[in-house]
Design a protein that fits this description.
This protein has 78 residues and is an all-beta fold. It contains no helices and 7 strands.
């Protein structure tokens, strides 16, 4: 997916979580991109398949966490 830093400070992404009903996958030691203000970056949300896998037509909640502990949450449909 593509994300954009619409803020005025540099953001470092360092964790993400994916929720689907009662299933959750969290990656806390992720080395995500560094985003300068107004920069767009392509990121991949990888699920290891042990908790669940992305299934077509299902809706998932994604939470991205920055090193400043800002959490950005959104939903996607696979």
């Amino acid at each position: 997916m593509n994300i954009r830093n619409t803020g005025v400070v540099v953001k470092w992404l360092d964790a993400y979580g994916v929720n689907y009903y009662s299933n959750q996958y969290t990656k806390t030691n992720w080395t995500g991109p560094v985003l300068n203000p107004n920069q767009v970056a392509a990121i991949n949300i990888i699920i290891d398949g042990s908790t669940f896998t992305f299934q077509s037509k299902n809706t998932y909640t994604i939470a991205l966490t920055t090193t400043r502990n800002n959490i950005f949450t959104f939903t996607i449909t696979a």
